[in-house]
Amino acid sequence: MITRAEIDPKTVVKEIGQFIVETVISSGLKGAVIGLSGGVDSAVVSAITKRAFDEHGGLTLRGYSMPTSTNAESDKDDAKELAEFLDIPYENIPIQEIMEAFVKSNETFKNSFHGGNAAAAVRLTQLSGEAGEHRGIVLGTGNRDEYFLGYFTKRGDGAADIQPILQLTKRMVYQVGKYLNLPESILTRAPTAGLEPGQTDEADLGFSYDEAELIINGFLNGYNPNEINKITGIALEKIEKAKRLHETTAHKRAAAPFPQVTMDYGNGKAHLTEADSALVIGRFQMVARGHEDMFWQITEHPGIKKIYVGIGSRGNTEDPQHRYLFSFEEVRELMVPLLEQIKAEKGIDYQIEDVPDINNNLEYSSHVEGIFPDITGKTAIVTGDPATVLCFDAKYPIFKPEFRVSIHSSTIRDLIRDNKPYAHLVHDIGAMNRINYEGRLRQYWTEHGNVRLG
Predict the structure, then answer these.
(1) 399: which strand partners?
(2) Helix, strand, coil proportions of the chain in percent (round to 5)?
(3) For the chain, N or C: smaller number of CB within 10 Å?
(4) pLDDT averaged over the chain?
(5) CA–CA gap between residue 431 and residue 333 (Å, rounded)
């Protein structure tokens, strides 16, 4: 069975609004800017933000429409109507002359595809300038369906500072829009990127957003195209196209990769071959086969005598939020069986500590050192995350594990939700049973809806 998640729009509006306000305040800024296309996605983000800013006080949302000759006149009218409806500062900034300059300088941009991407990039550049001028963040408007399918411009709308509705499907966006009483002209118009005359999203994709949601949920539940076709009745060619779009646009969703190169800071930093211990930091709300493989890769590295494990969180039991359902003690219960097995078979000791997030990259290494005073310059930091590398690279050797097992914890949780077998994908089902993992998860879903945990 492939089901659709349901939401309570009132709760979702509050959650997203709080996230936006917290992001702005923690950045020391004064508000946000957003591009108004006349479509439902930008309208919903704008309405949620305005409501949250009004409740908080002292923050300002500014809206901008940036049409080219490919935009219908109604786009500008709808954007202006929304700004007036929300009572926010609004400006219309035509970018057609900029686009003509692109074409004049390089005929590549005569192509509607490349020209459309350039227009999206110009709009993001305009918004970035306005954000800098008014000390705000740039709000993105992408939804989950578009994100999964790669239906966005990587260096345009994909480059916003935050993406408030990225967890919502198009169907959910419309639900929230109706709850917010948005103008009917916005709720009834066909979704379009406005990059070509007469263009619509669903014509580009070759299937509807309703079909996209079921197809995506099918893949997230571990079904293959043939199974999704059998369950939903959606044409196989549509399902295969969605799969192809997701796979060929993976680069859009990933942070820019970079190689790890040998550097000498002149401070006696040890080389990876000299490492005698390893430090791994993660949330580990489940010890899946991928985590297991990563730890065994550490044991394959010669010289490692101890593994330090930091269980990261944004407050653990004090403020778990929906990304951190399980406490430090509960996550530790999941970790110990694997680390005890490694200790018994490889003679490698371990230490597990709570490492609360501090949201400060400049001080993070010192924060971790205070929790693990025994780590030294010969402790290898195990990570593939570029941000973590930058926190530790000047002082510690970096060990980047190979990506050999691709099953993600969220996929396993989806299997649990759908009552499908999952024990073979985790290290120790007994440990999960001891903390009532499945029961806790189902209780949370009952109380809060089918929210995808981090």
Answers:
(1) 382
(2) 50, 10, 35
(3) N
(4) 88
(5) 6
DSSP type of residue 40: H
Rounded average pLDDT over 37-54: 95
> Do 80 and 175 belong to one domain?
yes
DSSP notation for 233-298: ---HHHHHHHHHHHHHTHHHHSPPP--------SS-PPPGGG--EEEEEE--SS-BHHHHHHHHHH
Same domain, 86 and 207: no
Q: Are residues 195 and 281 in the same domain?
A: no
Query: What is the CA 203 to chain-centroid distance, rounded?
Result: 26
Residue 380 has pLDDT above 60, yes or no: yes
Residues 186 and 326 grouped into a single domain: no
Identify the DSSP state of 310: E
Write the pLDDT tens digit of every residue in 152-185.
999 999 999 999 999 999 999 999 999 999 998 8
Q: Measure CA of the first residue to CA of the last residue in the chain; give whole Å.
A: 23
Sign for the CA dihedral angle at 14, 88, 80, 63 comes to negative
User: 47 and 169 share a domain?
Assistant: yes
Q: Evaluate whether residue 164 is within a structural domain.
A: yes
* Cβ-Cβ contacts under 8 Å for 2 (sequence gap 6 or more): 214, 217, 218, 221, 223, 228, 231, 232
Same domain, 304 and 341: yes
The pLDDT score that the predictor gives to residue 168 is: 94
Least confident interval from 48-57, 395-404, 444-453 = 444-453
Question: How far apart, in Å, are the Cα atoms of 51 and each of 47, 56, 419?
Answer: 6, 9, 38
Task: Find the mean pLDDT for residues 13-33.
Answer: 94
**Is there a domain that residue 2 lies in?**
no
Supply the pTM of this predicted model.
Answer: 0.66
Domains in the chain, number: 3
